[in-house]
Specification:
- One of its GO terms (molecular function) is heme binding.
- This is Acyl-CoA dehydrogenase/oxidase.
- By secondary structure, the protein is of the alpha+beta class.
- Helices cover 46% and strands 15% of the residues.
- The chain folds into 4 domains: 3-88, Flavocytochrome B2, Chain A, domain 1 (Roll); 105-236, Butyryl-Coa Dehydrogenase, subunit A, domain 1; 269-375, Butyryl-CoA Dehydrogenase, subunit A, domain 2; 386-540, Butyryl-CoA Dehydrogenase, subunit A, domain 3 (Up-down Bundle), CATH 1.20.140.
- It has 20 helices and 17 strands.
- A 5-stranded mixed sheet has the order 1-5-4-3-2. A 4-stranded mixed sheet has the order 8-11-12-15, with helices on one face. A 4-stranded antiparallel sheet has the order 9-10-14-13, with no helix packed on it.
- Protoporphyrin IX containing FE (HEM) binds next to strand 3, helix 2, helix 3 and helix 4.
Amino acid sequence: MKTFTVEEVAQHNKPNDLWIIVDGKVFDLTNFVSDHPGGKKVLVKIAGKDATKKFKQFHNDAIMQRVGLPMQIGVIGGAEKKEEAAPKAAPAPAAPAAAATPVISGELVTADQAKFGNGIPYGDPTWYQEWNSPYYNESHIRLRKAIREFADKELMPYCHEWSEAKAIPREVVKKVGQLGFLNAVSGAGTNPSIAHLMPYPLPAGIKPEEFDIFHEFICVDEIARCGSGGLLWALQGGLAIALPPVMNFAPEPIKNKVVPECLAGEKFIALAITEPSAGSDVAGLQTNAVDKGDYFLLNGEKKWITQGAYADYYVVACRTGGAGMGGVSLFLVERAWEGVEARYMDVMGMWGSGTSYITFEDVKVPKTHLIGELNQGFKYIMHNFNHERLGIVMQANRLARVCIEESYAYSLKRKTFGVRLIDHPVIRNKLGHMIRQCEATHAWLENIMYQIKTLPQESQPSRLGGPIALLKAQSTQTFEYCAREAAQIFGGLSYTRGGQGEKVERLYREVRAYAIPGGSEEIMLDLGIRQSMKKVPKSSL
Ligand code: HEM
């Protein structure tokens, strides 16, 4: 790219010939000045000068990526050389043992590996910021880098645009599939029996035999850093809950067809359980399928079905037997079949994730599309409940952290009454309360994931169901708290769609989609305690 001197840039200081410098990069804004949403005058005033500080005061990084960079014409002499030289430079020597951080259980890593991210305090988990941790190793470090690079380049700059359009382009989902992300978050990564059906390898060259729940967590966590629940659910909201019953219990021909298509991001799948009058009370659902000899005749309505508006497949829970849990079966229903209709619902947030209302009217479902055994559907739904809830916790926890990262960074640059926001004790108090809750949630989440990694599979539902339910409530209440406090810190910017408060405004609306589905906070807290009561020692009764 061309290099310029500061003096050369200074010549271009008029409305019809307007250059500026931001972070050592030179931009020609001549054709943009009249369209600048912040006004013409502000640009004219700073024409020909270094505008780095002003630019950062009024814009988020996405604006630079999406709108700014296409107008870059060069760099200030020396700046480009430095940037290009950086990747080619010899790797930094490993820090002396005494100074290095043992991130890998007991093993020393280099200072470079121990520190990752932009360094905003608490803006990333502690093991990104030179803390010791027993949970992660070199493969986790590699993975977080790969996913972050992808998210920063391919996703984050466009989240606002996609959210407003209420649609994530199909090409993006396919790219995410090629990255191996969909394998990682659908449970396929930790399911050896599915390895041969994965259309693309796991991300960052992680081998199936080394893939663990912490890898899955990093994938979710890093994509959640984009600060868009709508994006997350458009990628995995249906997949992560609908594909597991197919992977684990569907007949082979269905499994072999549907699993690779969905993991590649070529086709979409949604889990259709909730109904207009049955939500957390799964056993009360009324959609029914009647045995007609050659096929089942399916009738009923489903509501708030994530990814349902554009899904190709539905895993439908319906009544095939008597009342209660024992009369529920699961079927794989294809969108193209006669009698299946889905429409978009207009909801508060999670835009782009295809929240839908679905009707099944006299749909003929072939018997080969029964998932597992008749009337055993509730068991299959329960099989994935803990994983589903843990996925919600992973997302909610990072989304709370995004509120912290955004507010912390903003309070370092925004000035009121002559000082930065962070210099006001009331703002530090807000950040303190946000951080203590988020870090507590994170530590509990890691502790539970470690149990999932190490406890015998069979004992996990009974031992971890209660704590995971409590953790879900903890994570969504923390998220809600952080979203509110972040909105207070951002003030009017958080009341405005787009711009610097973009993520906070969106997350404030999306919180409800975490606090209610997958088991509402009220039900989670109650379940957690009821489960714990089963463990009370007899001597205490
Ligand atoms: C590469 C250069 C620039 C680009 C691409 C750019 C782009 C934009 C865009 C897209 C917005 C709309 C708001 C948003 O969505 O964030 C905006 C707003 C704004 N810009 Fe710029 N801008 C640039 C440089 C500057 C500079 C140098 C200044 C100040 C000297 C400035 C001041 C503002 C202000 C005051 C707003 C309104 C912010 C608000 O609504 O709170 N911009 N700019």
